[in-house]
Amino acid sequence: MPEKYIGQVVQIIYQDAKGQITQRTIRVRRIVDGKVLAYDFDKQAPRPFMIDRILALKPVGRTA
What we know:
Layout lengths: L8 E7 L5 E12 L2 E6 L4 E6 L3 E6 L5
Antiparallel strand pairs: 1-2, 1-5, 2-3, 3-4
């Protein structure tokens, strides 16, 4: 599902390996080996996100 959002800014609800759930605003850069490689605006750094841990995703109108 995230493939169609490459290059776009989206908000995700993400559950990490420890079970912690967070909301993140990211720019999707690439999809590789089951991971979304993205720029995380909240952490101000590139981050990988496992696709199977993304609980929800919605596009946002932000152009950053």
